[in-house]
Amino acid sequence: MHVVVVDPSRTVLMIASQLIGGQGHIVHTFTDPHVALDHLRTHDEVDALITCSEYDGMTGLQLCAEARTAVGAERPLYVILMSSTKERGRRAAALDAGADDFMRKPPEPDEFYARLRAAERVISLQRELMRLANTDPLSGLLNRRALFRRAGEARERAAAGRFLTAVMFDIDHFKRINDTYGHDAGDRAIQVVAHEIKRAFPIAGRLGGEEFVGFMEEATLMETAARGEQLRRTLQDMDIGAGKATINLTISAGVSLFRAGETVDAFLQRADNALYAAKSAGRNRIITETNVVVPDGVARPTRLRQGNRAPSNANVSSDPQTRRPLASG
């Protein structure tokens, strides 16, 4: 584990560091609770916080509460509060403030090691629960809830002037894969496409069915389209084993660029419109939002809340040659 220890006494920090480091853990020690909080905010690998209740300017109880706020609800952190006092209400106050455990200071080695082992068990369980809560079980990508949370965080960063782009992918003729080769083959196709999308995009998730979304920060619209095109070509050239069958598949995708002030839904709606244009143009291609034409009189049923339509004038950004091993259309 990565353990942060905060105490005004350098002697206590030295003892705690020796005890924790002797068990193979990585230790970070601080005398200033504010510096320790900054470390927690910027180092996601920290698993546990051990602090004391006696401070000038910030109590240990306040540090427990601030630490919980700093890491947020989506990140596990085990908090142990140490105290040299014998106040009966201190244990309850520590637990109410966000601590998971309470122990006397200075710690007895055997008790200290036992509490560290308990922390490891709890952190391991919490991480697994969070993984299950955030991951789509078939594809291994972010599920819809986690994807939109991560997209919201990226949107906040983009509001400060950073680039943010989105690509919405769809497996072409996915129903025919299921109908021709069976649902096991369809599942295998989803897993292979998801694996390649995860390699290509830092934030990637499955919306449902055969639809996926990838986000890129600090990349222009055309840079992201080029990444999508590389992915399209990779998948087009793959032979996917599914039982006794070998499947060849293609994907279509639409790319959009975040605009200041818009919602994630509106941002993704433009990528969805571009994806529809790619499908309408013959599939197996990437189209950016700046090249989208939504056919007059055609209203596409959408899985997202309605956003602004993208500008018109369509041009295809990929190789027009289309490989159709399953069927045409």
TrEMBL record:
Pfam families: GGDEF, Response_reg. It comes from the Bacteria. It catalyses: 2 GTP = 3',3'-c-di-GMP + 2 diphosphate. GO terms for cellular component: plasma membrane. Residues 298-329 are annotated as: Disordered. Its EC number is 2.7.7.65. Residues 162-291 form the GGDEF domain. One of its GO terms (biological process) is cell adhesion involved in single-species biofilm formation. GO terms for molecular function: diguanylate cyclase activity. Residues 309-320 have a biased composition (Polar residues). Residues 2-120 form the Response regulatory domain. PANTHER family: DIGUANYLATE CYCLASE DGCM-RELATED, REGULATORY COMPONENTS OF SENSORY TRANSDUCTION SYSTEM. This is diguanylate cyclase. It comes from Variibacter gotjawalensis. The gene is pleD_2.
